[in-house]
Specification:
The structure holds two protein chains of two kinds. By secondary structure, chain A is mainly beta. Chain A contains no helices and eleven strands. In chain A, strand 9 and strand 10 (97-100) form a beta hairpin. By secondary structure, chain B is mainly β. Classes of the chains: A mainly beta, B mainly beta.
């Protein structure tokens, strides 16, 4: 079954500390993964996608097919990074649809 | 460019009633997807429309339905409301809905079923 697991519902770090939000997936096809973010009182928005191999707002994520993981990392967390983060897996076939993890709420303390 | 617009922002209904939610995608976007967001289940895919055709459907009962108009605006309907249908309903649009395309989300409609 296709599934995205974010094991941590809540994650709290101090400003300047490294942060890693975990995401594991289960999918028999070729995975395409995303991180979406929702800041307080804002819309859900795309943070980054693995195919772009980009770094957005200092965040990076590497697809590890062996470990079926797509963890989101940032070396130095900022208070403005506090938000809800969702990992998502694109399912192919007909039309694509996104399967989301249940999200991790990141709090960066001053 | 205007973002994805969802109306209404809030709805309160009672069990057994039906409800219609509306979504206007970004101009030029032809794919509209709907998601249900709850604290317990997170974001769950409802269905996706492209050029007035439903292309994909999630695992929701037949009480949940939708449609898309020729101007790409979409509506979803929930009939015979149940308490468990209380949720934030999000609409997202993209140009084609294909591949690793970026989805643009609306602010959602918060539905409360009493």
């Amino acid at each position: 079954a296709q599934r995205v697991t974010q094991p941590e519902k809540l994650l709290s770090v101090f400003k300047g500390a490294p942060v890693e939000l975990k995401c594991n997936y289960s999918y028999s096809g070729s995975p395409e993964l995303f991180w979406y973010v929702q800041y307080s009182r804002q819309r859900l928005q795309l943070l980054l996608r693995h195919i772009s191999r980009e770094s957005i707002k200092g965040f990076t994520a590497d697809l590890n097919k062996g470990e079926t993981s797509f963890h989101l990392k940032k070396p130095f967390a900022q208070e403005e990074d506090s938000a809800m983060y969702y990992c998502a897996l694109l399912l192919h076939g007909g039309s694509e649809k996104l399967v989301f993890g249940k999200g991790t709420k990141l709090t960066v303390n001053p | 460019k205007a973002g994805v617009t969802q109306t209404p922002r809030y709805l309160i209904k009672t069990r057994g009633q039906q409800v219609t939610l509306s979504c206007s995608p970004i101009s030029g976007h032809r794919s509209v997807s709907w998601y249900q967001q709850t604290p317990g289940q997170g974001l769950q895919f409802l269905f996706e429309y492209f050029s007035e055709t439903q292309r994909n459907k999630g695992n929701f009962p037949g009480r949940f339905s939708g449609r898309q108009f020729s101007n790409s605006r979409s509506e979803m309907n929930v009939s015979t409301l149940e308490l468990g249908d209380s949720a934030l309903y999000l609409c997202a649009s993209s140009v084609t809905g294909q591949g690793a395309e970026k989805l643009f989300f609306g602010s959602g409609t918060q539905l409360s079923v009493l």
